[in-house]
Amino acid sequence: MGEFAEKLEAKPLFFQRAYLGSLLPNYVKSGNLGKYYQTLTDFNFLMAKIQHPDFGLQALIDDFDFVDDSEALTHPEYNSEKVKSLNFIQAVLWISADILTLDKTQLAEQLLGHLLHFNIPAIQGMAEVAKQWKAAPWLRPLTSCLTPPGRGLLRTLNNHISSVKAVAVTADGKRAISGSRDKTLKVWDLTTGKEQFTLNGHSDSVNAVAVTADGKRAISGSRDKTLKVWDLTTGKEQFTLNGHTSSVNAVAVTADGKRAISGSRDKTLKVWDLTTGKEQFTLNGHSDSVNAVAVTADGKRAISGSRDKTLKVWDLTTGKEQFTLNGHSDSVNAVAVTADGKRAISGSHDNTLKVWDLTTGKEQFTLNGHTSWVNAVAVTADGKRAISGSDDNTLKVWDLTTGKEQFTLNGHTSWVNAVAVTADGKRAISGSHDNTLKVWDLTTGKEQFTLNGHTSWVNAVAVTADGKRAISGSDDNTLKVWDLTTGKEQFTLNGHTCSVNAVAVTADGKRAISGSRDNTLKVWDLTTGKEQFTLSHTSWVIKAVAVTADGKRAISGSHDNTLKVWDLTTGKEQFTLNGHSDSVNAVAVTADGKRAISGSIDKTLKVWDLTTGKEQFTLNGHSDWVYAVAVTADGKRAVSGSRDNTLKVWDLTSGNLIATFTGESQISCCAIAPDRVTIVAGDESGRVYFLRLEGMEALT
Fold it and tell me: How far is CA 221 from CA 277, 285, 303, 395, 500, in A?
């Protein structure tokens, strides 16, 4: 907990409550802003307040608002750097709110992951204290691996059980209403990030939602071909609008609350009278499904987005098209317009949002951050914030005043599929959807060089025990052997007739075993570059492969939900491991060759006894597919990566979860250095995370 928190905990509860509650207001009242600043940059104070049952995260976030920036800058103990420091720390608390609400022990890793980027003394000082936190096991970022504050994202809201398809925000900016493929709408408090209530009634996916200017009614559109009008005071349905001949994908409402405009898969928009519930007229012009619509505050223009990749601006007086906005590279799914009618914000299948000038019809800038399709977007009345919903199951809140500022990640430009660590623990090798491999210095987290040669995605990578060669498998159906000293390709292994999904190398570096979408495993001689023999896994895709340290056995995981253990001397199957209820994505084997650990689409990991072929136990904790698994050299711990954006560390003796790290995208691969505490992971966005397991003393 830290010395500060330990001393505080020793005090009576009433003292703790009074101290944590009055400390900062008293500093402000007495004009001691220096102490105010020192306290809010004290990691131990932050941890104590967030963990205290009478306060928590929101109370801590509110502490940063006792003094506004303009007031602080007039104080002799303040300067712009100090103001910036407090703004950054508060921003991280907002960004991480969904994570910290569930797990307060992740405070240190979230602060470090987001703030190590900044060379500001107070932040670096706080980071040094945070690094020493050992009250519970945690994964410490070794580099700035999470998006720094000030890059647009403000916070994330979670609770829908399927993808978010639509979102609207009330005119006062206090509430958001989201619609989901789970057939429901949810009403959110944007101050606290909490769900207020759920609206039930549609019989299929809710694709669109709009809210009246007075915040009293919401209008939703659904795949069930209807629109529904809801009372936001009672949470009850008022009436249903019928008329479209296909799924209703979009809806907007005029500022006076008298008309709604809907867009449909039937390629049309319809204008509705919300007093009578009758259709007024139809707008024709798009060449494909209309997915999005917004209306200007004066009610004179509508802006629609379509699967035809364009947006169109309509005159609602004449029903005529004014002009077309071009720029997205895929279907336009969402659009919102600022209150002054000067800008539109669109969301697309291309994972981006774009901000448009409605006077000139030109694109102003692009917002990047979602890891899947952007399905919905709304904008606050002051035009400063936008809220977007995505197929990545999250909503994101954006600061439009910083929209032009782009944050460039060092490393891969697309999904990182594979990562391996050299036996000396000095380097990591990652493979990506961007067709490349990168070699990293594990001490500094810096890229050393890039390996180019594959013509499609790199799905798998393994490294020889001497650290001199890497073997990669690709969607181009080949494996390549690389010289890690020169960064040059040595030769290519040809033979698979489909994507190579997995690769392992024997401890002596003489053979590689690859698994493919062609349903086979192949054993390769790395001296000659020749195929030795093929192992057929029946008629199912091979997703994962591992090899025992003695090189005598291979373990493969398949789309058929099973693992198979193979004798590499005879090329025969020894036995099958049954237990997973869905595809096996990952497998690792302990150094003594006695156990295998597998990860599956069924959200679990399983630990197997390779002597008996029996399951020992199941590791439960991930809320989505498990993509990756690695095991420490001593066989005592496993690390897993999942589509739920988390990396988890497991105790293989007890089966208990030790620590969790939450990234910003799906964790697709992981590896552990020989020191057993340094972990490298890759995610869907292209990030490579370098982490260290800390606080294990708390378990002893």
Answer: 14, 20, 17, 19, 43
Residues forming beta bridges with residue 198, ordered by sequence position: 186
Is 217 in contact with 225 (CB distance < 8 Å)? no
The helix (run of H) or strand (run of E) holding residue 314 is strand 311-315
**Nearest CA to 57 among 97, 108, 15?**
97
Sign of the dihedral through C-alpha 579, 585, 591, 593: positive
pTM, 2 dp: 0.74
On whether the CB atoms of residues 143 and 447 are closer than 8 A, the answer is no
> Would the CA dihedral through 558, 563, 566, 568 be positive or negative?
positive
C-alpha–C-alpha distance, residues 332 and 322, integer Å: 18
Q: How far apart are CA 439 and CA 462, in angstroms?
A: 12
Exposed, middle or buried: residue 275 (CB in 10 Å: 0-12, 13-18, 19+)? exposed
Which tokens is 689 given? Answer: 């995370």
What are the pLDDT digits (tens) for 347-396?
999 888 898 889 888 888 888 777 788 877 777 767 877 777 777 656 66
Residue 347's nearest CA partner among 321, 361, 324, 367 is 367
Structure tokens at 661: 């790290």
At 512, is the secondary structure helix, strand, or coil?
A: strand
Query: E strands along 369-435, which residues?
Result: 374-379, 385-390, 395-399, 416-421, 427-432
Structure token pair of residue 205: 């996916």
Tokens representing 159 are 């609770």
Query: What are the DSSP calls for 476-541, one per residue?
Result: TS-EEEEETTTTEEEEEE---SS-EEEEEE-TTSSEEEEEETTSEEEEEETTTTEEEEEEE-SSS-
β-pairing, 458-463 with 446-451? unpaired
- Beta-strand relationship, 259-264 and 268-273: antiparallel
Instruction: Name the one residue in this structure whose structure tokens are 């307040």.
Output: 49
CA dihedral 612, 592, 548, 525 (to 10 degrees): -140
> Which of the listed ranges 189-193, 274-278, 557-561, 695-699 does the model predict with the highest average pLDDT?
557-561
